[in-house]
């Protein structure tokens, strides 16, 4: 039972990270390979403040949220000057820099990290694993709720417009720069918040836990589940988070397995498991439409493009 | 007071002056078109107004306040909305969402209200539905924009631009990629939009469309304001006609060479029938048919965007095409591009496309390796240096360091070392000084005199008419007119084809 709870908390932390990452990668279409660095910033600040200054767990949540958010704001500002591949490489660099800072700055405890992070307490009662799970789920619900709400707001619609075509988005008055920065800030802040849970849950933070490979794992989960969709981010974290626990032998080859899954997924189902137009979501919508009235075909009426001419030519731009 | 005032606007890119000292006004409620040949500066002017590029000097005033150097988003908020030459829909969003997201006002986007739900406001919803109806897309409102064809995308862009109720609508070649059938409904839509009281500034290659819709027309040529007046004045302006049909006197000497040549017309070299091609969803060619006889000099003329380059690329296998193309009795279309070269077709692409990191010598050697008849590649390269001594002087330089004219010579030379019997050349005069153009045409006529067959696409109609045996006039992806050059030279329909194509 307790073991299952531990796995569940891990999955919930991953889910917060993927749902947060989805705001930058899914909604605005910007690459970000530094999500674990933001998790690390949140975790390290929670660890430092709780061990060294005796700050309570409840106060470390907003601290971690804010610190990672500020770092995300910095990365967002950088993202305005870079595009696609170059931005991706820069985010990788950012992750390495953050890990190096943890490793070499005495403030963060050096390469051994920070130990004996106290368990949070509520009304004198020390946290058990189930309490971590409850707090984690509350955080996840908050993050999912915020994502869901933002996607339907003017802000989220504008992010989608920026993702689809930056020039066109600017031409209809969308403040691209500030919206991109806001998306990076929020995405990183959510990861930082997950960090405030991570530190007392594991009671130890070490620099290597927040490396670049961990960022790849988080991105893999999102792509596996379906980029741009909250349900995709959740299912990706759930399946890929649980996989190494369900099949023990996988845990030794975790990165290898994830790598192979990612390659196969991108080759055969780039939309992800539950992404738009994926096999799974098509099956689901077919099942749903069977109950609704049939939709008439519009292709014959002349406003839609002919499929056969479109599939061969070079891309539009 | 004029709504938009363009005052002595100049735009330079490095050493190139794209727009030079252009001034004109657009009154409130007016419909003004900007026309001009390729490279005239139309798009530069358009982008300077829309805020996409910064003008080097001069002032642009909108509603009395200076706006030069403003960002596109700012221009959108002050009431200037634009469409794009290459359609730019938000392709993952539905048609309705495309219009809806564009309807957000500055007060919403720049405040906490941007966190409010986009769908709740009833007035916005009604406004979006009305626009959907206006552009005839109501039935497709819930379809993804990526599913629309080019005509529907053009209408969507107009609706998207109108969503914030702008006071000035900038339309960037809305007719590009639209077939003849789609032109009239599009013209009706634009006219309807203008009649709602909107001021329109239209940039258009389709001169007929521009002249038929406008109150006033601005004609640009090589970055300068060539003419400004009513459509009637512009249509009869000598300078405008000559800008579209090419400058006089440049190729007189070259013409003399060709007149003495006998027309060898025995065997068919290339037979094209019903050739259709396009880029993705944009059809560019609609069933082209033409014949090139052995030893002939055939020219394809037509305004920019008529489909000349696409036709040549389709013949070379660089753009997927359907239909029939037979070269010396062999079907051409199933062959990949490099095999077509082996069949004996030399190709000089538009925009040179030399290999920048290789030296002049290496560029030529690389191509000589594919010679139609093997052996003697060294002599063939030497011959190129004889024809273009400039290249010989620079044979050890990387082609990146060559001037534009020298690069064009190299691209030409690359086709020559193949010793192909059939040469396809695309706009070899583009962006070059008259002296260089003359040299290139001298060489072209000389090798034609040696019995080579030539298929040349040329925007400069005068050159084409002087040098060629046969001329095909292309318009909106179709052959509009064809005949011996000697006949077409005096044909009033040539003028018609260039100045009216609706």
Give a quick summary of the entry.
The complex is a heterodimer of chains A (317) and B (502). Chain A has 14 helices and 2 strands, in the order H-H-H-H-E-E-H-H-H-H-H-H-H-H-H-H. Chain A has 317 residues and is mostly helical.
What does this structure look like?
The complex is a heterodimer of chains A (317) and B (502). Chain A is mostly helical. In chain A, 70% of the residues lie in helices and 1% in strands. Chain A has helices spanning 2-27, 35-52, 57-79, 84-104, 129-152, 154-164, 166-171, 176-202, 212-225, 230-246, 248-252, 254-268, 279-289, 307-310, and strands at residues 121-122, 125-126. Chain A starts with a helix and ends in a 7-residue tail after the last helix. Residues 294-301 and 306-317 of chain A have low confidence and may be disordered. Chain B is of the alpha/beta class and 502 residues long. Among the domains of chain B are: 2-89 and 148-245, Rossmann fold (3-Layer(aba) Sandwich); 249-344 and 424-430 and 457-502, 3-Layer(aba) Sandwich (Rossmann fold). Chain B contains 21 helices and 20 strands. A six-stranded mixed beta sheet of chain B has the order 6-7-8-3-9-10, with helices on both faces. Chain B has a six-stranded mixed beta sheet with strand order 16-17-18-13-19-20, with helices on both faces. Chain B is globular. Chain B starts with a strand and ends with a helix. The interface between A and B is large, with 41 and 56 residues.
